[in-house]
Write a structure and sequence with these properties.
Blueprint: H1 8-12, H2 14-21, H3 25-35, H4 42-49, H5 55-66, E1 86-96, H6 100-106, E2 120-122, E3 129-133, H7 146-154, E4 162-168, H8 175-182, E5 194-196, E6 199-202, H9 212-222, E7 228-232, E8 245-250, E9 255-260, E10 263-268, H10 279-288, E11 294-297, H11 306-311, E12 315-319, H12 323-335, E13 342-345, H13 349-364, E14 376-380, E15 397-398, E16 409-416, H14 421-433, E17 441-450, E18 453-461, H15 464-467, E19 468-474, E20 477-485, H16 491-494
Pfam family, one: TRM5-TYW2_MTfase
InterPro entries: MeTrfase_TRM5/TYW2, SAM-dependent_MTases_sf, TRM5-TYW2-like_MTfase, TRM5/TYW2-like_N, tRNA_Gua_MeTrfase_euk
GO molecular function, one term: tRNA (guanine(37)-N1)-methyltransferase activity
Length: 495
């Protein structure tokens, strides 16, 4: 009973206790309904089924019946807003205009509270009266509960419930209600989307495509600030991380502005990759960085890791193969006034690791003094392919290994459809690196991309025996040297 908000006062009344003790369970619920009009649809459920039905389910069903557009819109592909008009019969109280405010306040849980609909309307036959519209879910069968009748008695209002013809128009319906009424009955309705500035980005299913332009216009109508709706028409190009798209409704301007973690970015959504669902992950990685750290962003895009890291006073090397991403990366560096803190590159990720990353690590790692707190982080956010790039780290550097505490930390992203995605990502990373990461890596679930497809991040410090090849003496000829990995020497020599 407490789930449905019944007060202790009601439950303790002698009349209720006496009646309940001699009444069957379904009848008890009917008795409760006499004391309160707060169980939406209860009479309907008890009358039809002879047992109590959860009110949430009943209310959802009532929503479909009362707040549904004209059924004639089913199958519409070209939006006709006028066709959605419908008149429904709802309960109302006819009262003097002087007491309207007091009545609405006293019956705040019973009056109509649907956005876009007036709950107080004029009486066309008497300017001194007003109709207070009641929620049809709370007043089933146009019958007031005892608590409502008591309120009316105190305000000296006639308890008679009037039947009011309420006109519903396109403006009164929610996007999901409109699309549910239009699409074939029983088909999945998609009203969700990713918002990128003024652009709404959809991923429509095949059965929704005939209605795509109508869906786009409805989303614009029902979401202030959205002026363009696009639908992805193919999978992401793993080379440049962008995808073809069709403009469904609105203007065709795909250059937009977004704000993520209090940083502004500008981009051409048709030419670069941007996913607002990664905001939390961008923030998580940047949170790991300290001022003075060095970040190598191998697949930087327009800068969601690089720019906040630079603002945190890190030294940043950012790269992206896509010329458009590189252009917008430079633009956003200037926009956020960090262009002097970021060295930007337009290279293949493998070439970036073999070139600028190797050069910087070779120069800086030997110079680190004991106790110096600078950390090196390498972010590889290309989940479709990044794990395949990990083999680049095999013997990337030559010389004596640095202290284990100074070894760079890699944050590599990947997709997995495995039943144990963390294990799958770790095993694939180990295969690329040629070593075990058991006990020295962590995996983080970023998001669910699709049914049975997860995006994960695996983080680990590069093992010295992977990163370094080192000169070691050849026992047969002391004057000559050969290159060997740290596996070729004892642990004592490494120390």
């Amino acid at each position: 009973l407490w789930r449905f908000g019944y007060s202790a006062r009601l439950l303790k009344t002698n009349h209720f206790r006496t009646a309940a003790s001699h009444t069957s369970f379904p009848a008890v619920w009917m008795l409760l309904a006499q004391y309160s009009g707060r169980i939406p649809g209860l009479f309907v459920a008890a009358k039809k089924n002879r047992f109590f039905t959860m009110p949430e389910a009943v209310e959802d069903k009532a929503d479909l019946e009362v707040y549904s557009p004209n059924p004639e819109v089913r199958g519409m592909t070209l939006l006709n807003r006028e066709a959605f008009k419908r008149t429904v019969l709802v309960p109302a109280l006819k009262v003097k205009k002087e007491i309207v405010n007091a009545l609405v306040k006293s019956l705040k849980h019973t009056v109509l509270q649907r956005p876009g609909l007036k709950r107080v309307v004029e009486d066309p036959e008497d300017e001194d009266n007003r109709f207070v519209i009641l929620d049809p879910h709370k007043i089933p069968e146009f019958s007031l509960g005892e608590s409502e009748q008591e309120v009316l008695k105190q305000l000296d209002v006639c308890p008679e419930v009037s039947k009011y013809n309420l006109e519903l128009t396109y403006e009164n319906f929610k996007a999901e209600e409109i699309l549910r009424a239009v699409l074939p009955e029983g088909q999945e309705v998609t009203s969700g989307f990713s918002r990128v500035g003024h652009i709404a980005h959809l991923n429509l299913r095949d059965h929704q495509l005939p209605y795509r332009h109508l869906i786009g216009q409805v989303i614009i109508d029902k979401n202030p600030g959205i002026t363009c709706v696009v639908n992805k028409t193919n999978i992401i190009d793993s080379t440049y991380r962008n995808f073809q798209m069709e403009v469904l409704a609105g203007d065709s301007n795909l250059v937009t502005k977004v704000k993520e973690n209090n940083i502004a970015y500008e981009l051409d959504f048709s030419k670069v990759y941007w996913n607002p669902r990664l905001s939390t992950e961008h923030g998580r990685i940047v949170e790991l960085l300290k001022p003075g750290d060095v970040l190598f962003d191998v697949f930087a895009g327009i800068g969601p890791f690089a720019i906040p890291a630079a603002k945190k006073k890190c030294q940043v090397f950012a790269n992206d193969l896509n010329p458009e991403s590189y252009k917008w990366l430079l633009h956003n560096c200037k926009l956020n006034k960090v262009e002097k803190k970021i060295k930007a590159f337009n290279m293949d990720g493998r070439d970036f690791l073999l070139g600028p990353v190797r050069e910087e690590l070779s120069k800086e790692l030997p110079l680190l003094k004991e106790g110096q707190k600078t950390s090196f982080h390498i972010v590889m956010n290309l989940p479709a392919l990044a794990i395949e790039f990990l083999d680049v780290f095999r013997h990337l550097l030559t010389g004596e290994p640095c202290s284990a505490t100074r070894l760079p930390t890699v944050h590599c992203y990947g997709f997995s459809k495995h039943h144990d995605p963390a294990k799958d990502i770790q095993e694939r990373a180990e295969a690329s690196l040629g070593t075990s990461l058991a006990g020295r890596c962590s995996t983080y679930l970023v998001r669910n991309v699709a049914p049975n497809k997860e995006m994960l991040c695996i983080s680990f410090q590069l093992p010295a025996d992977v990163l370094y090849k080192r000169p070691c003496p050849d026992g047969a000829n002391p004057a000559s040297k050969r290159l060997c990995t740290s596996k070729d020497v004892s642990e004592e020599e490494l120390e």
